[in-house]
Structures are given as structure tokens and as C-alpha cells.
Amino acid sequence: MVKRVLGINPTTVGTGQHDPAAVIFEDDELVFGAEEERFNRDKHSFETFPEQSISACLDFCDITLSACDTIAVSWKPKAKTKYDLKLALDRNGLQKKAYQAVKNMRNYKISLSKLKNNLAELGSSIPPIETYNHHYCHAASAFFPTDFDEALVVTVDGRGEKDATVVWKGDRGSLERIRTYEYPNSLGAFFGTITTYLGYRVHNGEGKIMGLAPYGKYNKEIADKLLTLVEPGVDYDVSGLNYHAGEANTKLEELFEKPKKSGGGHFTDWEKDLAHIAQQFIEETIAEIVETYSHEQDTSNVCLAGGVALNCKMNKRVMELDVVDDFFAQPVSHDAGSAIGAGMLGTGVTEFKQTSEVYWGPEYSSSQIKTILEEYKIRYAEPDNLEREIAQRLAEGELIGWFQGKLEMGPRALGNRSILADPRSVDSRDKVNKFVKHREEWRPFAPSLLESAAEEYLINARPAPYMIKTFDVYDEKKDEISAVLHPADGTTRPQTVREDQNRRYHTLLCEFERITNVPVLLNTSFNDSGEPLVNTPTEAIKDFFGMGLDTLVLGDVTVEKPIRDDREKIRSETTTYEQ
Predict the structure, then answer these.
(1) Measured distance CA(309)–CA(233) in Å, rounded
(2) pTM exceeds 0.90, yes or no
(3) pLDDT tier at 554 (50, 70, 90 boundaries)?
(4) Could you give the count of Cα atoms lying within 13 Å of 509 in the half-sphere of its Cβ?
(5) How many whole angstroms separate alpha carbon 243 and alpha carbon 185?
(6) Backbone phi, then psi, for 229, in 5-degree steps?
(7) Tens-digit pLDDT profile for residues 34-52
(8) pLDDT band at residue 246, thresholds of 50, 70 and 90?
(9) Cα separation of 417 and 433, whole Å?
(10) H or E segment to which residue 100 belongs
(11) Sheet holding 520-525, edge to edge
(12) Can you tell me the distance from the alpha carbon of 347 to that of 124, in angstroms, rounded to the nearest whole number?
């Protein structure tokens, strides 16, 4: 009999705040999973229960909630509430202590009842609920889907119940906690503070600061001042700058005698230097932790998870350490991925299929797509050789919206909900930034490339199917893929593609190589600025007509925008559909 476990990151009171998600396991296989933002269209979906994600999991399996054997939650609300109380008592004056104590005890009770009430809305019978330590879930998500017999596992994010960074030793079937850095001594919170000080939103702009960092340089004055508040390395301490974002930014304003930046966009050299130093701080600290405990635990395999593990430049630094032979970063490293770890722990299984793709979300059939287009009276064509035709259009400079198969889980588009362009010219990068993504012109893009060609382009190449690793590029190849190199340091953050991972996307890359001799495409997420990745054909159509894209590919069919001179003719004709 199949055992079904529903793993959730609920973001209700007493748990986390952002990136709610749900996944469902059948025995040892993750069969469906998605973030709530993909359904409600609210990026990161702060403090939102993943009702639609859970419903989608149940619909995929054609079951009701009561058919699940276990609901696995990626937080322990009681532990978080107790630690919140401790923080409040340590921090606040005597007058606030009694109030805070009552408030936290009430929050714990609310968290349990709120979770059950939310679940009750999805089914009258609620299966047993198991709660797991948040960082334990991150660690499970990073270690269990690898083929490592043993590994060092480091989980690092803003915070869990009380954990901010945890070092684990993974042995097949178990995870042993080696060292804990408690919140507010949090690298995630530290980088979030720098992010807000430089004008972006926490939990949303950290990747932009990572991308900004290579434009800066080491600035001794900034570094010296910052090091009066924080200490890097294996015994790092950033607690003096954390706990409350508003107060932390006030500290930075006083320290640097500069006001917090209002909004992102254009940056001064000083602001670029601060981003550079913050990135360097994160890289050096995690590298020293990995180096120290890899030696201590006598292992050369390293796994990372938690939101900070989305920092692909940091991952490059870890991969290149002499003590590291093999490396895996969970592609859904942020809090949505904790639902994966909770689900794994809930199954009771410790050996899972090695992760090689994250296409776990909704998909739409060709007939569903055609029905939607016909309802909207949108003309479409169905090419005899779709991949060859789109490869030719890309080679001629078109910008393509590419919508295929199952939705990716995690923050990266990996060839199913992608915007694609020719990687051979920086003009492609500039056009996509300005006319398609409507974002800052300095931000880089990443490539997809055939895994079989990775060694031709990437120094120290290895499979990288999730756009979570960064590589240097051979000088003689840089001109071929200039649109997908970071303009400041020439690095790239690739997705390597094999046929068994994504057949149609692999074929498209092969066709583009046949035409151009370059087995690479510019690939960025199919969404407009501030939006989550598109989920449905309708969302893809909406974004297509609101962006500077030339062609939309929906499954087997293509859609083009009417040329201005043809619009009156189209209006006067009866709508037909080219088959």
C-alpha cells in the first residue's frame, strides 16, 4: 500500500514568515510540489498558509486530505515560541517582560489551532501532524537526495526556531548536529540587513546584492568600520547587527554616516563597495566553516541548504576549496525547500532517488492550451518541427517566451517557464533587461548549455542542472556567450542540460548549436518584474503581451504578436486557427 506524506512550510504564527509551499511523497518519491506564490501570484507570500499548494498536491494524486498518512511540518512552533520568549526577556526592559511572556504563550496556542483550522478547511479528517526542526528539514533536503554515503552538511538562513547556522555530519540514514550558531547570530539576517540598507526588500533583494557585488571593490574604510560590529570566520559573530531590521539599519546609518538608500536602481561606487564587502564576508565565513569541519569530520563531500545557499558566488567559493571533492546545494534552498525536507523525514525513509531535476509542479496538455487560446481568440500555429523553428528564430535575434511541461519548483526557471534569447551578443542581455524584464540594466543573466559541452566553456566544469553554481569561463569562449557572463567579473551561473532531464529543451539547445555552433541559450525566468514565475498558460499569455517578447511557445504551438499594419485586417476577418 502506498504511503503518502504531505510536507508543508506553513508560515502561520509560530513558524516562518515567507515562501509557504507544499510537496507530496508517495513512498520515497516526491511526485508533486509547488510554492504558494505560483498560485496566488504574491511573490514570497508572506504569512500565508499554502492552501492552494496543498490542494494542488491532493488534486495531482486524486485524493482527499484524509488519504495522507502524515502531514509533516517544517517547524516546531513550541520551540520557536519558547525561543522568541527568551529573546524578548533578554532584550526588553522589565515592564515589557510580562506582556511579552503572555503574548508568546498565546502565539504558541494560536499557531497550533490556526494550523489545524487551516487544514480543516481542506478536509474534515486531519491526518496525524508531525513537526520537525526547521534546520533539520533543510539538512535532510540537502543530504538525503544525494548519492553521498557521508558528507558535511551546512544549513544557513535567516533563522529557524533558534538556529541560524548549523553544521551537521551526514551518514547514510542519519544527520548528527555538530555545531549550532543561534539567532540573532545569523548570516542570512546580516546579508538581509545590508540588502535593506542598500534599498532592496529583505527576502527578495539579496540576489540583487550578490549580483551587484562584483561591480565593487575592497574598500578598507568600509571594511574597518563594519568589522567594529561584526566578526567573520568559523567563530563569526554578526549578532550586533541583527535582531530587528529597523534598528540594524539605524546602526549602519550611524556607523557610515550615510542614510539608508531609498529604492534600488543606480548605485554609487561606495554602495557597490559595501555590497562587495558584504558578499566577501559571507563567502569567507562559510568557506572557513566548511574547511574547518570538513577536516574535523574527515569528509570531502559537502552539502548546503537554507536561503543563503542560493548565493551562487558563495557556492563557487566552497566548491573550489581544496578540501571539497564533491558538492551539492539543494536547488530549492529557501524556506519553500524545507517542505521537501519535512516530507522526507515524514516518510521515515533515508535513501531517496538522487535529485537531477525539480519539475514537480502543474502542467497543461496541448488541448488545454489550445482551448484557452481559442477562448481568447488568439491565433496560433503548430510547427512541424517546433524546436528547429524556435532555434532559428533565436539565432535571428528573437526573444522567446518558452512554456513547457511541469512547473519548476524553486527560484530558477530551468527550461519549462523560461524567457530565451541568443547568448552571443550583449545586445540580447540589454534588450531582455530593458524591454522584457523591466529591471536594472546592470543585472546579469545566466545560460543553459548542453552538459556534454560544459567542459568546453567552464573552468573546473561539473554538472550544474539548477543554476545554483557559478563558474569561470575560458577566455577563448567568452565572446561566444557574452550575454550570459557577469559584466564585471566574467563568471557565469549555468544550467547544464541532459536529454533525460528535459528532452524538448535539450533538443532546442541541439538545434541552436546546429545553426550557430554554440550549444548555449540565455535563459531567465518567465515573469515580469516583481512577479512570481508564471504557472498557467493564461499568465504566460498575459506576460507575453505585456513584454517585449517576439514569440510565445506554449507546448506544441506558437503565438506571435500582430504586426501593426495587419491589425485592421485581422479585426475584419473571422478568427481562424492555423493547425
Answers:
(1) 17
(2) yes
(3) very high
(4) 26
(5) 8
(6) -110, -30
(7) 999 999 999 999 999 999 9
(8) low
(9) 17
(10) helix 94-120
(11) 495-497, 446-450, 520-525, 417-421, 400-403, 551-554, 557-560
(12) 23
Contact status, residue 47 vs residue 114, Cβ threshold 8 Å: no
Q: What is the pLDDT of residue 93?
A: 53
Phi, psi of 19 (to 5 degrees): 60, 55
Q: Which CATH number fits domain 366-565: 3.90.870.20, 3.30.360.10, 3.60.10.10, 3.40.50.300?
A: 3.90.870.20
Separation between Cα atoms, residue 478 and residue 99, nearest integer Å:
61
Share of the chain above pLDDT 70, in %: 93
Q: Strand 150-156's sheet: what is its strand order? A: 174-182, 163-171, 150-156, 301-305, 326-329
Q: CB–CB of 510/517 below 8 Å? A: no
- Do 4-134 and 366-565 fold alike per CATH? no
Domain boundaries, the chain: 4-134, 147-329, 366-565
Instruction: List, in order, residues 6 or more apart from 346 with CB less than 8 Å away.
Output: 5, 6, 7, 25, 70, 71, 72, 130, 132
β pairing state of 557-560 and 551-554: antiparallel
Q: Return the pLDDT at 102.
A: 54
Q: Is 119 exposed, middle or buried (0-12, 13-18, 19+ CB in 10 A)?
A: buried
pLDDT of 567 strictly over 80:
no
CA separation for the pair 475, 15 (Å, rounded): 47
At the topology level of CATH, where does 4-134 sit? Nucleotidyltransferase; domain 5 (3.30.420)
Instruction: Flag whether pLDDT at 163 surpasses 60.
Output: yes
Note the pLDDT of residue 243.
56
According to CATH, the topology of domain 147-329 is Nucleotidyltransferase; domain 5 (3.30.420)
The pLDDT of residue 95: 47
Is residue 485 a contact partner of residue 478, using CB atoms and an 8 Å limit? yes
Residue 482 CA: distances (Å) to CA of 115, 354, 401, 491: 49, 33, 21, 10
